Structure formats: C-alpha cells, structure tokens
Amino acid sequence: MTETDTQLAYRIANAAGELLVRVQRSGLFEGKTLGRVGDQMSSAFIMAALGEHRGRDAVLCEEERDDGTRSSASRVWIVDPLDGTREFGETRTDWAVHIALAVGGVPKLGAVALPGLGLTLSSDNVPGIVQAPGRLRMVVSRTRPAAEAVAVAAALGAELVPMGSAGAKAMAVVRNEADIYLHTGGQFEWDSCAPAAVAIAAGLHVSRLDGSPLVYNNLDPYLPDLLICRKEHAEEVLSQVASAVSAD
C-alpha cells in the first residue's frame, strides 16, 4: 500500500522525536550543546527521509540553507526539526517536531510530535473537541509572554498557562488542555505550519491576528503572528486583539 503524505509526515515526525529522546537521555550533551546537536541530527534525519520518499517536492527547513527557489513550487514540506531548542536542552517535555506539507500556500496537512509526552498528533490523528471549562485558558511563552497576549487574557478573564515551544502550545489547544494560543512578536513558517494544519484538522479556528488566513511558502518565511482557538471564541479574541494593538 502506498504511504499517504499524512502517514509519511506522522512517521517521520514520530521517528525524529524518538531519535531526539535518545539524544536527550544519552547524557553525552547538555544545555545549548544538547540543543544544537539535537537540531542537527533531527534535521539530517528528516531531510534524508523526505529526500527518499518525496524527492521531487521542495523543502523549507529551519536548519537548512534556503535559496528561495522552493517559493515557486506548489508542494513544499515545511519542517522544524526541533521546535523548542531551549526546552529540549533543559530536558523539559514541552518541545516538538514539526512536519507539514503546504500546497499552493495552504497548510494541507501536518504532524506534530511531542516526544517528551510520547505523543504524535497529525491531520489524521486528532482528539475531539470537548466542552470548554468555565474559565478560559491561554497558553503563553514561559519566558517572554507577549504584552498583547497578556492584555487579551486579562480582558477575557483567561488563565495564563506558561509553556515552551510553539508546537507544544498549539497542541495544548488541540488536546483540550488550553483554549487559546495567541502569538505576537515573531515566528517563521516552520514554527506554525504543522501546528496550524493539525489544528485545522481538529476543527479549530486558525488565522493571523487580523483574522486573515495563514499563507505559507513565501519568499520571506517570516510569519510573525498566529491565533489558534476554539471557533466560538475567535470573534471575541480577534476583537480584543484589535483593541490591545490600537492601545499600544
């Protein structure tokens, strides 16, 4: 049986995550060196796997040189071999591996491995959305929460949930452990493409902070803002974002 793109994304993300766990637990490296080695090893593994199984497709990978030629391709794999290098180096669990396929600029499918939790989610493997709790929960950076996110959380009466990588935060919403992931202050396409694809498959609202769709495979991969939340909260969150931004 031919392996589908989603199955391939899941398999590569899961295997890269298992590789990273072995590196993290080896005791051979620590701190920033552990993060650097993990990035390099995961990137090499993923690039080899995509080259073997989808060699005709273009790839945008955080750790690989990008000459921009992939921006003219329709099918582009967008990869973050280790999202949350700091958390990985600190031997925490809130880091991730992102494998996504964008087609015509749209995040068609993706897989996000959470190896520290022994879990990999994909566009074909998402939990159902359950009823929201009485008080909303917003995931924010554990080291530098954005002022806009803090302001919106205050306006909504939402509880702040500090967390590491972008993938971990986005999947917290997918996994019903949080209700809102609002990011400002800068990201790149590899930070959000796979999480966005998985969140869309889960039936969540996914957009830029002005409500416009996320568009991938741009010549400049900088994509600074993101909102992932339950659809019933999107209008109010976007309204509060606009108010917070205009108040600055």
UniProtKB/TrEMBL annotation:
Asked if the Swiss-Prot or TrEMBL record annotates the protein with the keyword Chloroplast, the reply is no
Q: Which GO terms describe its molecular function?
A: 3'(2'),5'-bisphosphate nucleotidase activity; metal ion binding
Q: Which residues bind Mg(2+)?
A: E62, D80, L82, D83, D191
What are its cofactors? Mg(2+)
The superkingdom listed in its UniProt entry is: Bacteria
- Kindly give the CDD domains that the UniProt entry links to this protein: CysQ
* UniProt GO BP: 3'-phosphoadenosine 5'-phosphosulfate metabolic process; sulfate assimilation
Q: Which Gene3D superfamilies match?
A: 3.40.190.80, Fructose-1,6-Bisphosphatase, subunit A, domain 1 (3.30.540.10)
**Keywords tagged on the record:** Magnesium, Metal-binding
SUPFAM superfamilies according to UniProt = Carbohydrate phosphatase
Pfam families, per this entry?
Inositol_P
The name of this protein is 3'(2'),5'-bisphosphate nucleotidase
